[in-house]
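User: Sequence recovery, please. Input:
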């Protein structure tokens, strides 16, 4: 009988044991989904970004059988809903108005990272559907034992939707905008799939950045210097302050740690103007996906954000043969630049049967709207009719 245990730190499991479990089903890859790697989760924890004081208490799940690690899941005990990107504030408010506590809740997710990817790792030979049922039962029992309101799993892989479906949990869909590589050899090949007006618009936008005197450079791994990292954090920090009055979810120590732990899976797009570094975008990548994550700038130059965060990423993906570019949550402005509306998935279990029923009713009404939104957005894609 498998033994299920919640641990209080990613360091309660060795990096080798954790990473081997998550990476075992894609042995041909040189790079794997970056955000589930021990080094990424350790960077969040060691920098203080995920701890009780920030509302992200690590509670990762380990599954052992005969002392062998056969399963794992990233889990956090949450005392708020910030940094999740699947918005349940209305659910929390409904609990509050009825004199109940929605927090703490148990969350399976990558903190501050709305990027779909693996959420349950299983050793070879472990039957996924059976084990997932056992995991769901364990999480529900833990919530009841500790008086946690619910558990949630966010942004699991779309191809696993059928695996996650059950009578005990509720499914929710969202919509993001992703770029897909259809065997393009150059950026111009990609643009050739656009209609004439949209193609000219992108070329004009890119030309405007170039004519403004901005020079962009793509750096990977060891090409990114300590000075580049220091400046990037300053841009990120400053941009957050300008937009929201706070310094962002992540601190300098986190970026220093990911540079050490995952540097070879990081792309930095650096922008220079008149000899000064004025902006940078940071992406992660594996063999199949590019993930746009962080951005910061000191000068507001028209088109620079789109060039650094989107077009440079597309060029990088084409060069490397990367199949999907996920630039992050939201952003309808991505549609006219060739990013296609893509459904994302999450799963939810609420201990209170009354609220479980109420949320189920809400989701039955929300889901058709999200699917209709996706279809509507697809109608605004820039592609020629024959390639859409």
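Assistant: Recovered sequence (388 residues):
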């Amino acid at each position: 009988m498998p033994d299920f245990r919640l641990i209080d730190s990613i360091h309660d499991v060795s990096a080798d044991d954790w990473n081997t479990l998550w990476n075992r089903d894609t042995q041909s890859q040189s790079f794997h989904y970056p955000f589930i790697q021990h080094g990424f989760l350790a960077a969040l924890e060691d920098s203080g970004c995920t701890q009780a004081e920030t509302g992200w208490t690590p509670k990762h799940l380990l599954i052992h059988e005969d002392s062998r690690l056969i399963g794992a899941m990233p889990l956090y005990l949450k005392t708020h809903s910030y940094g999740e990107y699947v918005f349940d504030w209305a659910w929390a408010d409904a609990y509050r108005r009825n004199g109940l506590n929605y927090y703490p809740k148990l969350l399976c997710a990558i903190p501050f990272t709305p990027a779909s990817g693996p959420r349950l790792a299983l050793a070879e030979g472990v039957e996924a559907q059976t084990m997932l049922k056992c995991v769901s039962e364990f999480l529900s029992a833990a919530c009841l034992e500790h008086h946690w309101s619910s558990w949630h799993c966010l942004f699991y892989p779309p191809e696993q939707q059928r695996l996650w479906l059950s009578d005990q949990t509720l499914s929710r869909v969202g919509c993001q905008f992703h770029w897909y590589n259809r065997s393009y050899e150059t950026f111009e090949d990609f643009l050739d799939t656009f209609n004439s007006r949209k193609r000219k618009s992108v070329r004009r936008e890119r030309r405007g950045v170039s004519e403004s005197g901005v020079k962009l450079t793509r750096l990977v791994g060891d090409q990114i210097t300590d000075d580049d990292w220091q400046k990037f954090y300053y841009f990120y920090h400053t941009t957050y302050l300008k937009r929201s009055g706070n310094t962002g979810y992540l601190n300098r120590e986190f970026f220093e740690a990911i540079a050490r732990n995952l540097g070879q899976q990081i792309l930095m797009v650096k922008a220079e103007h008149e000899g000064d570094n004025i902006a940078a975008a940071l992406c992660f990548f594996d063999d199949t996906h590019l993930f746009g994550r962080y951005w910061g700038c000191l000068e507001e130059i028209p088109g620079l954000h789109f060039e650094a965060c989107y077009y440079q990423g597309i060029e990088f993906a084409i060069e490397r043969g990367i199949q999907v570019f996920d630039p992050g949550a939201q952003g309808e402005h991505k549609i006219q630049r060739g990013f296609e509306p893509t459904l994302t998935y999450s799963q939810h279990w609420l201990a209170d049967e009354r609220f479980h029923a109420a949320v189920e009713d809400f989701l039955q009404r929300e889901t058709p709207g999200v699917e209709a939104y996706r279809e509507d957005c697809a109608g605004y894609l820039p592609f020629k009719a024959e390639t859409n």
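The chain has a mean pLDDT of 95.
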